[in-house]
C-alpha cells in the first residue's frame, strides 16, 4: 500500500485532472451499475468522514508526529454501526468461478478493524498489516482486538485461514547479512508469523528481500535459512513470497529467484508465492493478451510450480512492460489493461485464493486535500467479479475496456515519458544494474 509505505508517500496518486471522466459519471461506472444496483444507491452517500480521517494517516506517519491519532490507535472499538457498506458483498457461490476479491484494508486502531473495512467495500478477501510498518517494536496483539477479529470473521463469514493475507513489514529484509540486523529482521518476521497463528491466519505475504549488493546466491541462501528457522519456531502459517517489480538488488523479480528460495526451504508445505500482477508485468512477465497470459502462466508452472501459488495482488501498471517500475494503477487504466484481468478472473487454477487490490484510492477533495475514496475499491471489486464468465469479445467488455483505458491515458503517457527520459539518460540501465538511486529519482514507485 502506497499510503503505508515507509518510503515517502508517492507524489502521484490516481487523479483525474484534466480528464473528462472526472466531471461526469464514467461510462464504465454506468456499465457497472446494473451489476450492483444496491451498491450504486449507497454510492451516492459520501463515505463516513471517520473512515477518511482514520485510515492511512495513522499508518503512514510516525506516531511521534501524530499524538492524537496514536491515542486513537489504542482503541479496539468496532465501527460496524457507522460503516454503511459502499457495496454489498457478492456471494462467491453466485460467481461462475470461486474468486475471492478484496483489497488491502486498514487495520488502524486494531486488527479487528480490518474486518469492518473489508465489509465496508464488499470484499471477500483482504490484506492487512498486523502491526505498524514504521517501527521495529510493537506491543503484542491486544486480546480484545484478537477476540473481535475472530468473532468478526465468524459473524461476517470470512475464513481468516483462507482469505486473509497479511502483508509483511517493509523494514524486514531476510537477506540481511549483518548479524545484528539479520536478528532484528528475523525477530520482527517471526513476531508477525506468531500474530498470524494467534489470529487463525494461514497465509503471510512478504517481500523476499534485497541483496544489498551481495551475491544473489548468498542472499537467497540467507532468506531460505531464515524461513527454515521461522517454520520450526511456528506451527502452521505459510510464508508467501511476493514477486517483485525488479529494480536494483531486489530479489524476486524472476520466477527463478522464487524457485531457488523454495528449493532451499526444508518444509515445502510452509512456503508459497503471491503474484502481484503489476510487479510481474513491470518485471517482464506479460499478461496483456490471452496468449501472453498463457505463456507467463506456463513459465510459472514450469519454473516455480502451480502448487506454490497461494494468492494474488491485483494491480494494473502505470509503467510500461518490462520497465522494472513499481507503479500501481487502477484496474483497466494501466498498461496491463482489462484483458489481463479478464484472463486472471477466468483461470480455474486461481479459484479459492485471496486476490487483493493495492490500487490507488487517493483523490483530491474540493480543497485540494488528499483523501481516500474507498468507493474505488468497492467498484473495482465488482468490476473484477463481473469479468468472471464475461464474453471478452462482447460489447460490454469492449466498452468497459475502452472507457478504462481512456481514463488512464494521461497517466500512462506521463510515466512513459519519464521512463523514456531516464532511459535516454542511462537511468533505466542504472535501475536495472542496481546502482543506488539519487534522491528524487523514481519518487512515484510504490513498495507493495
Ligand atoms: Zn503487492
Ligand atoms: Zn508487497
What is the mean predicted local confidence, pLDDT? 83
The CATH topology turns out to be: TIM Barrel
Question: Structural class, from helix and strand content?
Answer: alpha/beta
Task: Enumerate the distinct ligands.
Answer: zinc ion
Low-confidence stretches: 1-81, 428-443
- The helix count comes to 18
Instruction: List how many beta strands DSSP finds.
Output: 14
The CATH superfamily is identified as Divalent-metal-dependent TIM barrel enzymes
- CATH class, named Alpha Beta
The largest beta-sheet arranges its strands as: 3-2-1-12-9-8-6-4
InterPro entries: AP_endonuc_2, AP_endonuc_F2_Zn_BS, Xyl_isomerase-like_sf, Xyl_isomerase-like_TIM-brl
Pfam families: AP_endonuc_2 (PF01261)
GO molecular function: DNA binding; DNA-(apurinic or apyrimidinic site) endonuclease activity; lyase activity; phosphoric diester hydrolase activity; zinc ion binding
Family: Belongs to the AP endonuclease 2 family.
Brief rundown of the structure:
With 448 residues, the protein is an alpha/beta fold. Helix content is 42%, strand content 11%. Its cofactor is Zn(2+).
Explained architecture:
By secondary structure, the chain is α/β, with parallel strands linked by helices. It has a single domain (95-424), classed as Alpha-Beta Barrel (TIM Barrel). 42% of the residues lie in helices and 11% in strands. The chain has helices at residues 20-23, 27-33, 37-43, 49-54, 57-60, 67-73, 113-120, 143-156, 160-163, 179-199, 216-233, 255-263, 277-282, 290-303, 338-345, 375-387, 395-424, 427-433, and strands at 100-104, 125-128, 164-166, 203-206, 209-210, 238-242, 250-251, 271-276, 309-314, 316-317, 328-329, 354-357, 362-364, 370-372. The strands form four sheets. An eight-stranded parallel sheet has the order 3-2-1-12-9-8-6-4. The protein has a two-stranded antiparallel sheet with strand order 5-7. A two-stranded antiparallel ribbon has the order 10-11. The termini are close together. Mean pLDDT is 83; it is low at 1-81 and 428-443. The structure holds zinc ion (2 copies). One zinc ion binds next to loops.
